[in-house]
Amino acid sequence: MKEINLPYHLILPIIISIFILGLLIYKKKKMFKNGKWFWISLIVFFTIYLLIVSGATYMDISAQLNLQKFDLNGDGFFNGSEITPDQKAAMKTLTNDTGRNFSFIIGLFLSGIIAFIVLVIGKISQNIKNYKIINKKNI
Question: 1 pLDDT exceeds 60?
Answer without folding.
Answer: no
